[in-house]
Every structure is written in structure tokens, then in C-alpha cells.
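Pasting as-is:
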Amino acid sequence: MQQRTRISVLLGTGIVAAALLAGCSSGGDGTPTATATETVTASPSSEPSSSASSPAASASSAASAPSASGGGGSACAATSLAGSIEAGSGGAAGSTYVHLVLRNTGSTTCTLQGWPGVSFVGDTNGTQLGNAAKQDRASAHPTVTLAAGQQAVAPLQITNAQNYPAGQCDPVSPDGFRVYPPGSKQSLFVAATEYTACRSTDVTVLTVQGLVPEGQAAD
């Protein structure tokens, strides 16, 4: 009797299991579940597409950054500078120290680093008079960052032309200075008629130091 009952239970369980399997394979509820699973496994392909748009956005941000930082760190062009001469530390034995001032007249920040090229010019046409200035390589020469309107200063030593025999110097009154910002092939003119230049290249009457921030010039 017990054996028959056990067989009936097994047969009943088998029938129930078969019915459940039949329901899963033919019923409408089972199939969407399998399809939903496939959709989920397909979602990783949608993740790369969304992450692919992120690098594009990052690239766009990175592209805009250099233009902003590049404008801040670019060298000052001669066309965006105005020059002037101001009093320096005064006179030394046989020479005078003045400050060559370069002011950023542009609308963006730029930098100056090193020694400007300086020479006397005259004859009302920009003719160079004598030798260009020696560059005092022992002087400070930091990178000077100039926001719009800010100034950098280069101490300029002008040796008295009277220190030399007239035949050796060939003294002449200049119109001013031609100034090349460091690294530039373009120059600007700074008017200054109160000094005496030597037209002869036998002597050099100018010595310039490196550019430093305003207020930090040693001479």
C-alpha cells in the first residue's frame, strides 16, 4: 500500500513538472522574460556609446583649455607693448642708470622673459646709432607675467659719450631707442632725446639687464 502511494506521488509530481515546463515553453509570460534578459545583456553595448560621447565632451573641454592657458602664457608681442624711459637708481661713475619700461597694452595676459634688444636710433628715420646694447647675463631674468596694463622693467646703463675721445665715439643726439622684446623679431620705438649716442661702433655705450616685475629692479 505504501509503495502504491509513493508511486502515485511521483507520478503526480512528474505531471505537475511537465505542466510547468509546457507552460514556460508555450505560454506568453515565459518568452518576454527571456527577451528581457537578452535586452539587459545588450546594454553593455549602449554603455560604450554613452562613454564614447564623454571623451568627445572631454576633448572639447581640453581643446578650449589650451587657448585660455595659451593666451595667458604666450609671449608679449611688440604690437601689444608700449615702451618708456623712467628714472633708475641714478648715476654711476661715468654712466647713468635708467629703467626701460614695457607695458602690456593688450587685453590679454602675456609674458616676458630675458633681455630686450636695445639700441640708439636717429637721423629721424630709425637708423641705428653705434652698437646695440650689451646684455648683462649675470642679471636676474625671471618670467614676468603681465596682465593688461601691467609693466616690466629692464635697468639700462648708459655710459657717458664724453668718456671717449670725439673721434672714437662720433657723438650724436639720438631720437630714442629701438627695443626688441625678448625672442621677438618685431621692435617698438621709445622716444628719448636727452642722451648722447656714439655713432661709431668702436665703443658700446649701452648695457641692459634682464626684465623684472615693476618695483624689483636692482639698479
